[in-house]
């Protein structure tokens, strides 16, 4: 998960931009929705803050075109497919790839044999950078909230056992059908309050819940990240209250 980016375009061609997935030294990757085929895609383009000479910029574009042509010739289950390539007058060359959800490198390390070592490398700066990625561009993480959360996380060395805490990911996969069944078969009214810019509980999760409970009431919070109760506490309280009143 990457930090929210307030400079993101809202749309590239037919693709509606949802959030920043990641960035590297030269490029960035955006999560977008293709309304024509109704699927999520990953769009790769050059960073907009490079400030590089025109000739170097042209070289990078040439390299991206070569990458696109090479990707188009490859079909493998472990390589994401290239769906489209185009040029935006402001953003330049854009490569549209298949979007594949998966683990970050840190998650793989923490869940593997090197987990205890990776956990001991945790620091306040690293925590703050990663925690900020959970917040939306409209309501970024404040320094006060970051300090408070780090104090909780690091109490009695809690930040050193991240490899143990992350075990919930395996449980989520292992018991997925049990949890789906609990949502589907619950005999009482059920409703959902959902932040649409949440990079963890994404709108794909909400779509799945709607399939399980088509009649459920849903309140959507656009432009809000993983912690709506922190980002927009008043809006969150009113929305939760309205759902509870409908259920009673």
Distance between the amino and carboxyl termini: 37 Å
Radius of gyration: 20 Å
- By DSSP (H or I, 4+ residues per run), the number of helices equals 11
> For this structure, what is the CATH homologous superfamily of the largest domain?
Phosphorylase Kinase, domain 1
Structurally, how many domains make up the residues?
Answer: 3
Q: Which structural category fits the helices and strands? A: alpha+beta
Helix content: 40-55%
Mean pLDDT over the full residue set: 85
Question: Sheet bearing the most strands, described?
Answer: 6 strands, antiparallel
CATH class of the largest domain, named Alpha Beta
Strand order of the largest sheet: 1-2-3-4-6-5
Shape: globular
Q: Strand portion, in percent? A: 15-25%
Number of distinct beta strands: 8
Helix/strand order? EEEEHEEHHHHHHHEHEHH
Q: Say what the CATH topology of the largest domain is.
A: Phosphorylase Kinase, domain 1
Low-confidence stretches: none
Named CATH architecture of the largest domain? 2-Layer Sandwich
């Amino acid at each position: 998960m990457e930090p929210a980016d307030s400079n993101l375009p809202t749309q590239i061609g037919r693709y509606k931009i949802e959030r920043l997935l990641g960035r590297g030294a030269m490029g960035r990757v955006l999560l977008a929705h293709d309304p024509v085929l109704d699927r999520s895609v990953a769009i790769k383009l050059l960073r907009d803050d490079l400030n590089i000479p025109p000739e170097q910029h042209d070289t990078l574009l040439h390299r991206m075109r070569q990458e696109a042509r090479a990707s188009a010739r490859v079909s493998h289950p472990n390589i994401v497919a290239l769906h489209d390539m185009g040029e935006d007058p402001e953003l330049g060359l854009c490569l549209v790839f298949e979007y594949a959800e998966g683990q970050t490198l840190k998650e793989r390390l923490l869940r593997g044999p090197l987990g205890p070592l990776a956990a001991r490398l945790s620091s306040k700066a690293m925590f703050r950078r990663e925690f900020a990625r959970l917040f939306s561009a409209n309501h970024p993480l404040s320094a006060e909230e970051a300090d408070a959360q780090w104090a909780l996380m690091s109490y009695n060395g809690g930040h050193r056992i991240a490899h143990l805490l992350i075990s919930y990911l395996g449980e989520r996969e292992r018991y997925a059908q049990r949890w789906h069944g609990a949502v589907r078969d619950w005999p009482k009214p059920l409703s959902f309050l959902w932040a649409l810019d949440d990079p963890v509980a994404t709108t794909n999760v909400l779509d799945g819940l709607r399939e399980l409970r088509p009649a459920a009431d849903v309140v959507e919070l656009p432009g809000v990240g993983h912690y709506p109760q922190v980002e927009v506490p008043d809006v969150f309280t009113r929305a939760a209250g309205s759902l509870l009143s409908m259920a009673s």
